Amino acid sequence: MRGVGFDGDELADGKRLAEDLDIDSTELVEIVVALEQHFDITVDADAEGGFTTVGDLVGCVGRLLSAGSAARG
């Protein structure tokens, strides 16, 4: 993920955002906003509290992209 100071090897699905990557709540919001802008999606604000791992973020983005494709389909 460019722009946040991590390389691909550090961002394995099981990596915990706070404990392993030292991402605080403010940084998480910044990451979510960047993902929203990059993928033209909207992440439910309530969902942000449920992001514990990199995989949680990836899964959320994947679901939103799939839902968007189905809606346009």
Brief description of this entry?
This protein has 73 residues and is mainly alpha-helical.
Task: Give descriptors for this structure.
Non-ribosomal Peptide Synthetase Peptidyl Carrier Protein, Chain A, 73 residues, mainly alpha, 47% helix
CATH architecture: Orthogonal Bundle
Q: What's the rounded overall pLDDT mean? A: 87
Helix content: 40-55%
CATH superfamily: ACP-like
Tell me the number of helical segments per DSSP (H or I, 4 or more residues long): 2
| Poorly predicted runs of 5 or more residues | none
Series of H and E elements: HH
- Kindly provide the name of the CATH class: Mainly Alpha
Describe the structure.
It is a single chain. With 73 residues, the protein is mainly α. It has one domain: Non-ribosomal Peptide Synthetase Peptidyl Carrier Protein, Chain A, CATH 1.10.1200.10. The chain has 2 helices and no strands. The relative contact order is 0.16. The mean pLDDT is 87. This is Carrier domain-containing protein. InterPro entries: ACP-like_sf (IPR036736), PP-bd_ACP (IPR009081). It comes from Streptomyces resistomycificus.
